[in-house]
Amino acid sequence: MRRQNGISIEDVMKMECMKKCRLIAGFGGIRNTVSKVNIMADPDVLEWVEAGELLLTTAYSFKQDDIGEQKQLVKKSAEMGLAGLGIKIQPYLKELHPEIIQMANVLNFPIIELHDAIPFSEIMTPIFQEIFNKQASLLKRIEKIHEQLMHVMLSGGDLKAIIGIVTDNVRNPVVVKLESHDEWLAEWATATPEMQEALTENARQFLKQAEQRGDRNRFSENMVTLMQQRIRRMVMPIVVKNRVTGYLMTWAVGTPLGGFDLSVLESASTTIALEVLKQLSVMDVENRYRTEFFEDLISMDDTRKKKAVEKASLFHLNPTDHYLVVVIKIDRAPEGLTDEVFQKMSWITQETDAYLRDTQLHALVISKTDSLNVIFTSADKKLLNEHVATYSRQLLARKPKKLMDIGFRVGIGRCYQQLEQVDKSYTDAVKAIQHGPLIGETEVVYFEQLGIYKILCHPSLKEELERFYQAVLMPLVRYDEKKSTELVKTLEVYYQQGGNLRKTAEVLFTHYNTTLYRMESIQRITGMDLNHHKDRLNLEVALKVKKLLE
């Protein structure tokens, strides 16, 4: 929508210069805003007119054009957003063709019959003067509103106060939805409870549709149906650092919406963006302090760790409580989904904050670009484990559909007593994320679930594990590569089926004798006897080491 500050067709018709003129069609557009006045010498002028103009002409061209061309002129004028058409019908025509009148009424496009004795200049000059006066008045009002908004910002006011100023000036319900807030911020003006519910649902639908269309950063103005009424809606995006962080919405429930209201929304959205930016800056500073504290806490340097423990009281942490670290890692995003990664991280942070608020459980949240580290703490070890389990379940259950393109994994470390042990819980959580797929877990992985991998994944064992793998299983792997056989797979299924050859054959869809032959080949190539418990254990562990090394 172009900014249109001016006067309405209704106001124009009340002016002295229009006393001998009358509105003959398009009465439904009487509130159209006139921002300029122009003269049409011929129909080609439509190539240069702008929305909001009142176009003045004579019926001379109408006398020459056929009815089809006349209807096309009215239709195109309405489509271009002109405020209306003023025509000197006489002395060129007795009256406009009824089909023209009917079309203008259908389109709600005002047509004014101008008195043939009034020069165009005597119409244009007073209207321009009135528009200028109105715009000057609006500029003063907008400047006053801007001063009010700035005062709220500088005096430490909140978003509620900003919304209150917007509502007082647009005299309609105003709703703000920010990514950083779970709830809707609203001032309902004179809207009834039923209308408030309808407006909230309409706002939700807009957000959903905007996500699907991918045009979240555009101003939107259209007509919507609410409680069997057609109501104009304006939606202004709130942009921070070239990214949409929320929306400011209003509906013409009490009074019509026009150019002035658009100006109010623009000014308010900028002010809200500044407030959001201020909040983000504060959060960034706080997160930086938490990050420095956390990195000192998990450091291998005893001096840094001791320094962090001494600062524990600043973060309301008791050094003797129990601690458990949860690491949430965003999966690698496809190209072009940087904004989606940011949205998912914002959502995870909001869900974490909401859970901590609801349960009053204390935790330290450290946010990074593509991960979140949460240090849960409590004096009660059992309660701590229960809360972490509930938190991780809720996080997965409430995963929004709009962010399904990018997944995330949750790693849960062991619970340790003493703040100095946090580094161990963090290391456990990271290993849980890294090695969860080895045990078939890809979303929420507890370190305790890793079984033997808890031992095998220790960094100090890597070199020894590689030697063990080379000696025990590598001959079989190389044989498969050379002969294009599936002996390693057969061995894996054999262990999965508890050493039952018949079930192994069924899973592999092979004949029992074929499976038996494969097992004999495995023993021959590896030099291992599957009837001997020591060899059987070595081969099973070697298969796990293979997964780990891969």
Automatic annotation (TrEMBL):
It comes from the Bacteria. InterPro entries: CdaR-like_regulators, CdaR_GGDEF, PucR_C-HTH_dom, PucR_C-HTH_sf, PucR_dom. Residues 11-131 form the Purine catabolism PurC-like domain. Residues 307-434 form the CdaR GGDEF-like domain. This is Purine catabolism regulatory protein. Belongs to the CdaR family. Residues 487-545 form the PucR C-terminal helix-turn-helix domain.
